[in-house]
Amino acid sequence: xxxxxxxxxxxxxxxxxxxxxxxxxxxxxxxxxxxxxxxxxxxxxxxxxxxxxxxxxxxxxxxxxxxxxxxxxxxxxxxxxxxxxxxxxxxxxxxxxxxxxxxxxxxxxxxxxxxxxxxxxxxxxxxxxxxxxxxxxxxxxxxxxxxxxxxxxxxxxxxxxxxxxxxxxxxxxxxxxxxxxxxxxxxxxxxxxxxxxxxxxxxxxxxxxxxxxxxxxxxxxxxxxxxxxxxxxxxxxxxxxxxxxxxxxxxxxxxxxxxxxxxxxxxxxxxxxxxxxxxxxxxxxxxxxxxxxxxxxxxxxxxxxxxxxxxxxxxxxxxxxxxxxxxxxxxxxxxxxxxxxxx
Length: 343
Ligand code: NAI
Description:
By secondary structure, the protein is α/β, with parallel strands linked by helices. The protein is about 30% helix and about 15% strand.
């Protein structure tokens, strides 16, 4: 099987070459992102391997189908960049549902601690032999209330970490996990009671801008917002207003609404066109990382292994447990739950 990889970096190449050693898979690694402009590179391949900022909309899927490509293997969990309804019946979409919830949850906590204990400021100061403590006052996490939006794999690991810090954990999820022992509350209650709010739900039409102006207005003054999920969960302009008005005490963002053309690349020699992101980054209480939460050795190895297995299983009998389609989770419609091919 010849596979065209998009948006690849050195760390992807290493982990995939290791995972596929001795397998009948042939990789071509492209630096470019998959989009309507680059889709022609896929001609002659049997499969495509894509990542979070590759575009798999109807136009791109149509071209892939015309090239005879019947399978796209996402090397990530989220699939908001894929038009799964359009893909149905044409291109099978495989993904990596879990690779290390610890990687993402631990990064969320790393950002939270960095932000509230001003570690990023202290690091810069001491490098210049500035040992002043002025402006570095933080606050204890112990006894604070953390609100978790989305209690799937990552949200639940984050809840456990927070409990270890002696925090009270509140949660909101339209599908509460019965066995989690978490205290579920309504969304308005989550907003109004949380000192720290952490987002761990997928990006869907329902969750797009779940954090907007009216939501921010319901929050505690000085709330710390963590987003390690997907950028468009947060209305970035409303976030900026919330920071300027002091309603939001701090924001830790591993993802950003308009990250596609910016994140994962060295833009230090360019003028940043995105005024909202540029302004957010100037704020002393905003910490931005570049969609880095997944990036641990364990996660990269799991991603590569699962993606390779997904492709091999699919090549063997046209079925894969990690296939997804627009019927996923709707029990009476979901063929995979009946051990059948999705289409
Ligand atoms: P998961 O599928 O295990 O859990 C998602 C949870 O969100 C589920 O419990 C679901 O019921 C809940 N949910 C669905 N709609 C909701 C709504 N309207 N409000 C609140 N909760 C809702 O997913 P997992 O593995 O925990 O990942 C969560 C998200 O983290 C992914 O969708 C992805 O966008 C993001 N992610 C970010 C990474 C990074 O590097 N920054 C890496 C991996 C995932």
